[in-house]
Amino acid sequence: MLKIAKNRKINILVYPEFHFKGKKIYGVDLSGEVTPIEVRDAIIECFYQAHKGLLEDKVGATEEDSKVYTRGAVVAIVKTQFSKIKADFNNPTKEDLIKICDELAKLACQFRSCEEIKKHYCEIMELMRRLP
């Protein structure tokens, strides 16, 4: 069980609805080797996809400008989490990436349902499973 903020929990070990038969998860090709940098970038894309509507609503800019701003905001959020755990954004380890996912899940729980967080978390954990 992954403990999430405010005593909310997500069971990440058993989630039978997810079968990763597709060829890509957040742009990462599952048919080849997966690198920590690809997983880091997938985490950024995942967090962006999950929260872009919330972030874009806050910006109040043109659609194109808000996309640039919100992507930048997500990168900044992820970099902050790397700093928080004293990890290297440019050279992440598998352990660092797992900690980052846990921290981002806690943060996301304030804005999204646990079911939605579980879905994204499981997708990223499939990528983690493929790391050496």
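Next protein, fold it too.
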Amino acid sequence: MKTILQTLLLIVLLLGVPNFTLVGFQSDYESKLTKAQKDSGNIALGYLTITTEKVQIYDHTNKPISGKEYKIEKAEIRIKEGFISDIRIYVNGNQYINSKAPINLMKFGKRIGDKLYSLNGKKNEKNYIFIFPAVRYEASIKNKFVPDDYVNDNLIPGEINIIKKDKNLEAVVDFRIYSDFLGVINEEENGILQLESKAKIFLGTSNIKNADLIPLKYIEPYMSLVRFDQSTNKVALIQEVNQTNFRVSEPMDLLEKSFLSVGGHINILSYGLMNDHFSFNVNTGMGVNLSRTITPTDNRVLDFNTFQGMAEMGIEARRFENFGLDFRMTGIWLNPLSVDEISDFEAFWILKTSAEINGYIAKDIRKSVFLRFNYFDNLASSGGSFYQLQVGYKAPLNFGSVKAPKSITNEQ
């Protein structure tokens, strides 16, 4: 009887101790989460935590390695456009990373089975840990919004980090001011001062499994306003033979000398490479260009508008935090919108080739200087082309910001 009682007591202790430990951990976590929710007010989209418990390491055959349970030392994370694009978990002096695909933060519950692979070992023989319970994310009721970009290279286990969205348009509205070098030196009849604004509105929040492939990622309305030299800001018209109407002398001038452009782009497909260092995008879109023409007989100014449809492929390189390179090829279908006194011309295709280098000059990587070269080639039989060499500065529009605590530490 004594032996039976001792055995039962041992079983109770073995089953009870881990349970008491888990309850203690949960109680501590829930307490911190409640405090974080209270302190963050109405701007938090969710709460990210690195566990203080030990994590199990698995081998390449998906078997847990006996005795390989360690506490996490620290973690690094980068959230961009709603996705965990890079995460590193430091365990026992080794790093475990998401090497296959970004993790959609807004659907984190469906990705808890994702594996973080060790940087050590052969390609197909790497150990791994599961992202959950190593990383825990509690979404708030406002989790349908795309979170603000977030970088933290020192996530401490047990610390609750607030993932938030800005209460303004600063995160999505990109503003540029620039000048065209060829226009300034009178090599091309380009604008000498240009203002451009774009607003990226995210649509797609799900990537195809095990690939950084996102369909319909965003739409991007844009507006461009150009200031020309007074001597070159109008498109020349010529008199039609035996008619009262005029026609445009060089249709390509309507694009080169457009003083206002309004439209939008739709991202069809976005594909990331090398942990978001490179991205390939396929876009389409449309817009309207406003130009001014001048008659040859009495120098009257007539407004002339064109409609453009477009299809675009582009590659963006972000290998270094303070340097970027964009290359794009765009097919533009330019079509006249009828105007009294000016004869329509046949719509035609233009091939635009664009290359941009930008460098960040401040701690905020959204603020940068850039150098952009554009080449427009008329693919119609009439031919014609022009160049642009633009130098400028881009930054997010600031409508005021809402501050929030970065994290709730282990201290109560």
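About the second fold: The radius of gyration is 29 Å.
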